[in-house]
Structures are given as structure tokens and as C-alpha cells.
Amino acid sequence: MTPAALPLALIVKAMLSAGAVGLLLALLRRTGPRASGLAAAVPVNSMPALFWLSIDRGAADAASAAFGSLLGTGLTVLAGLAAIVAARITLRRRAAPVARRTGGRGGIALSMAIAGALSLVVSALALNGGPQFCGMVAALPVFGVCAMVAGYRQGGAPVMFAVLGGYLDGILAKAAFLAGLDLGWAAGAGLGAWPIGAAVAVMALLAQRTLRKRRQATHRIAA
Predict the structure, then answer these.
(1) What is the pTM of this model?
(2) C-alpha distances in Å from residue 205, one per residue of 10, 13, 34, 36, 70
(3) Of 137, 163, 139, which Cα lies nearest the Cα of 149?
(4) By C-alpha distance, which of 19, 164, 195 is closest to 86?
(5) Tens digit of each residue's pLDDT (9 = 90 or more) over 91-108
(6) What pLDDT, in 10s, does the model give residues 49-59?
(7) Domain boundaries, the chain
């Protein structure tokens, strides 16, 4: 990518990020907070950054960046788990009513603008660092934060933490994807690392779904 094309590329990424947040808000309204959280965990920032790194700098740098994204994702998971624990302590497991509050078009436009601006900053910072730093910056939870803010605007803390629960499920699959991608590049798979990462992520999602169903069945039997 030529230096002259970099500003245009950053603007395109910012616009795509804003559009993705708009879709997330629509998903939150139509299908509920859990689906919105899962969608927010899709590595929209990480995948383009890792792809261009693999093309421009080669598999070694891309593998290092994928490892950086994996580290950043792990820190996000820890922060999310801490937030859930704090919420349970604060709310004391109360069944708080979920009041659906629909933000106007101004609220949606504001969320999209914030996401686009954050994506622009993240992409610009990633250009000036090493591969691992690029990966860690690209893993910043821009969409997860926007989805949780939207959930809070629509239904308060209960909806926000439901979004966070779905996001953590999705981000574990994202971590599996990044691990598979890193291992694929390290093994010399080249472009074949992408389907490897996707396959590992699908297996992680299926495993989570199986465990969730087993827990639900156990709870029903216990009740």
C-alpha cells in the first residue's frame, strides 16, 4: 500500500466501522442483547489489520501481530469477567426489570461517529508500531464497548450485562480464531491459516453451545 493511499484506507476503515456499529444497534433492537454481544465480538478491526500485515510484511510479522491480538483479547476477557463479577455483587442477583428504551436517530448517529473515530485512531496508531503492537492495538474492544453502551441506553444495566455475556462468549471464539491463525502462519500455511483459524473458532462456538445446553439441562433437573 502506497503512502498516498494510507489516508484513504484509514477513512474507509472508519466508515466500515461506523456501518458495523449501525448494524449492531439494529441487531440489538431486533434479536436481543446476547446476539448483539456475539456480533460485537467479530474481529472487524483485527482481521483487516492482520490481512494487510500478512500481505505487506509476510507471515512472520503477521504471526507476531496475531499473537499481540491474542494477548489483547485475553486482557479484554479478564476485564469483562471482572465487570460481570462486580455487577453481580452490586446488583445482588436482583431480578431488575428491563425497560426498553429506544434511542433516537441522534443516539445511533453518535454511536456510529464514536466507533468510526475510534477505529481511525486505532488504525493510525497501529501503523506506527511493530507487528505485535499493531495486533494489540487492533484488538481494542471498540465494537464491544459501543454495543454495551447501546444496551445500557436501551435497557439499563441488565441489558448491558446481557450484551457483555454474549460478547464474552463471542470473544472466546475470537481468541480461538487468533490462536489458530497464529499457529497456521507459524507453521507456514500462508493464506491457509485463515480457514484454519475459522475452523478453530467454529469448534469453540460449538463447544460453548454444548456446554451451555448441558448447564441448562442440569439446572432444569435440579429445579
Answers:
(1) 0.72
(2) 31, 27, 14, 15, 17
(3) 163
(4) 164
(5) 655 544 444 444 445 556
(6) 777 778 777 88
(7) 3-168
